[in-house]
Amino acid sequence: MRRALLPGLIVLAIGGAAGVAVQPGGIGDAEYARRNYVKREVRVPMRDGVKLFTAVYTPKDDSRRYPILLTRTPYSVAPYGEDHFPSALGPSPRFMRDGYIFVYQDVRGRLMSEGEFVNVRPYQPEKSGPRDIDETTDTFDTIEWLVKNLKGHNGKVGMYGISYPGFYTAMGMIDAHPALVAASPQAPIADWFIGDDFHHNGALYLPHAFSFLASFGWPRKGPTTSGFARFDFGTLDGYEFYLKLGPLSRVNERYFKGQVGFWNDMMAHETYDEFWQARNIRPHLRNVRPAVMTVGGWFDAEDLFGALEVYKHTERQSPGATNLLVMGPWHHGGWSRGAGDRLGDVVFGAKTSERYQERIEFPFFKSLLKGNGKLALAEATMFETGRNRWHELPAWPPKDATPRPIYLHAGGRLSFDPPGDAGTAYDEYVSDPARPVPYTAAFATGMTREHMVEDQRFASQRPDVLVYQTEPLAADLTVAGPIRPHLEVSTSGTDSDFVVKLIDAYPDDYPDPDPDRATGPPSPFASPYSRMGGYQQLVRGEVFRGKFRRSFERPEPFAPNQVTTIEYVMPDVFHTFRRGHRIMIQVQSTWFPLVDRNPQTFVTIPEATEADFRKATQRVYRTAAHPSRVELMIWNR
User: 362, 537, 550, 598: most buried by Cβ count inside 10 Å?
Assistant: First the structure.
């Protein structure tokens, strides 16, 4: 039963610090910015003549030279007007008080900038003239203008941004301007079909795509300072809203009327064709020259994939680059706002965001932009959940982590021992698109942050969710790296989704780490129990659209009731299952409305009709001949 009312809201992160914090014995950040900085608004020309609106904040103290910190964003550099200042400047208030030239730019075609906006504009490797532009050229031209026209800078530029601005930061690392010496893509978009934001392994993340494009996706009639209008769902119950919506074709029929261009693009490109491949940034992270610090959150529902992939591909394709990775127990952008001490019911034992800002982010930029360029940071600074501790590692994943499969067995058992059963043995359930498994117990119209750690008991009680778990662990077990499901399955339909969830099942007598919680207002995601006993914490969950099991470019139908293999990679975790806990695996075929409904017939889903949606009997096999398993990277240290 869903138990809380929470309207979903997508966060449009612009990469700047927010709030009106007051320094001890000092003034608030907003007042400090106004007293100590001068604001200019300029229009920076690109090589093709298009001008990009740019806000520049320069320290009034001109007795020394300052590095430039640049953020490029599609989400607005508001407030507009040279007399209007934001609540703070820079990645965190510490930067503003230390002294930098802060530059914020509306990207091409957004808000007050000229030109045409293209979502995740593809990289052009060959450029024969000034009309051949992409985000690398716009970044290069912006930095070129800044270093030639701004006074009082020291010739060094840093760049940072969260989410979409993280994508622009990652693009700025490619063919980089010589003055760009430090870049921090944070929760960057890497691939919008395989694992970021709107698609995961070919399956549409429906409430995220719909909510985002319902505000962000409408065409702009010309330069404007206007923000984004939030869509009115008329209800707090997203499960019911999307179920009543029916097939995806009704989005245009009822709401978008064909005017939201990127929604139309998504519906027209259901496979991993050239449209999506061109928007995959990973192959282009070659010969990266600036020092890079990629930042992500283990519980980022939007761009966890992007952070891990940008680090991995920069490491692989730019072997000489300074390439760092930071991963903490954060939701999307949580390292820049909030204490980072908890998410939903799960607590992390410390203010992890403050530690990151003070000990990692600030030293990274200061040493490269103001110091001697030598970093006293590990290549991988990683937070281990479960034990709640930081690690400084020379590589990620740890080089001594070893793959070990854990197998599904009869009776809901989960074991590192392979099955020995002969013949046909399977567990089955009926997947009904008319009654899909909810992804959260809360009422929400969008994609919630908290579902990434939410108690899964609401799902494990359903007949269309298979549950497997180990005996209580005799010792701590640490998983460090990607997770690889290998399912041997059949379906009575011709297409199906399969969702695998890795879960930390707490002991029944586990104490509530926040016993005073019951005295305050209830959290929308608060457990209905007074203690955390029996809590089934989601550690990682991921969907795979079955028709892409052999190729994302060329989908294939299932042969009904014939055994086939589903293999894929889930994003990394760094989690310790404590002694006395159980490792749990759940398998299901719907995860609604987080993932759009698969009709379970082999059709082009954006064109599906009500008649295409049918029940299907799913079987998961667990024999010696067909051993379903999940490969974990075990770290013994």
Answer: 598
CB 507 within 8 A of CB 580: yes
- Quote the pLDDT of residue 13: 36
Interatomic CA distance for residues 291 and 323, integer angstroms: 6
The answer, yes or no, to whether residue 32 has pLDDT greater than 90, is yes
Evaluate whether 202 touches 388 at the Cβ level (below 8 Å). Answer: no
The residue among 351, 376, 393 that closes a domain is: 393
Bridge partner list, 66: 153
Q: Are 95 and 69 in contact (CB under 8 A)?
A: yes
> Could you check whether the bond before residue 165 is cis, i.e. omega within 30 degrees of 0?
no
Q: Which has the higher per-residue pLDDT, 424 or 627?
A: 627
Q: What does the angle CA 506 – CA 299 – CA 452 come to, to the nearest 5 degrees?
A: 55
| Phi, psi (deg, nearest 5) at residue 166 | -65, -35
For 82, 337, 382, 522, the CA distances from 351, given in Å and listed in that order, are 35, 11, 15, 21
What pLDDT is stored for residue 23 in this prediction?
A: 42
* Length of the chain measured in residues: 637
DSSP helix/strand/coil, 216: helix
Element (H, E) at 293: strand 291-297
Residue 613 pLDDT more than 90?
Answer: yes
> Looking up tokens 């230390």, which residue turns up?
98
Residue 73 to residue 186: CA distance in whole angstroms: 13
pLDDT band at 72 (very low <50, low <70, confident <90, very high): very high
How many other C-beta atoms lie within 10 A of the C-beta of residue 521? 7
In a domain, 236, yes or no: no
pLDDT at 222: 87
Instruction: Please check whether residues 539 and 629 belong to one and the same domain.
Output: yes
Task: Give the end of a domain, one of 366, 393, 420.
Answer: 393
Same domain, yes or no, for 505 and 359?
A: no
Together in a domain, 173 and 319: yes
Domain that holds residue 575: 402-634
Q: Three-state SS for 148?
A: helix
C-alpha span between 510 and 472 (Å, rounded): 13
**DSSP for residue 359:** I
Q: What is the 3-state secondary structure (H, E, C) of 379-412?
A: CEEEEEECCCEEEEECCCCCCCCEEEEEEECHHH
How large is the average pLDDT for residues 215-237? 91
Residue 565, H or E segment: strand 564-567
DSSP one-letter code for 47: T
Q: Would you state the structure tokens that stand for residue 124, as one six-digit string?
A: 């052009």
Identify the three-state secondary structure at position 115: coil
Q: How far is CA 72 from CA 13, 221, 223, in A?
A: 12, 21, 16
Q: How many domains does the chain have?
A: 2
Kindly list the distances between the CA atom of residue 188 and the CA atoms of 120, 211, 256, 300, 574, in Å, as whole numbers in the listed order: 11, 19, 27, 11, 20
Q: Phi and psi at residue 284, in whole multiples of 5°?
A: -95, 0
Q: Is residue 419 a contact partner of residue 409, using CB atoms and an 8 Å limit?
A: yes
Whether the Cβ atoms of residue 155 and residue 179 lie closer than 8 Å to each other: yes
Are 158 and 365 a contacting pair, CB within 8 Å?
yes
Angle at the Cα of 305 (from 171 to 352), degrees rounded to 5? 95
Read off the DSSP letter of residue 80: P
- Cis check for the bond before 557: say yes or no (omega within 30 of 0): no
162 plus 309 within the same structural domain: yes
Q: Which residues pair with 57 in a beta bridge?
A: 39, 102
For the stretch 453-464, what's the b/e string if a residue is b when 16 or more beta carbons lie within 10 angstroms of its beta carbon? bbbbbbbbebeb
The identity of residue 429, as a single letter, is Y
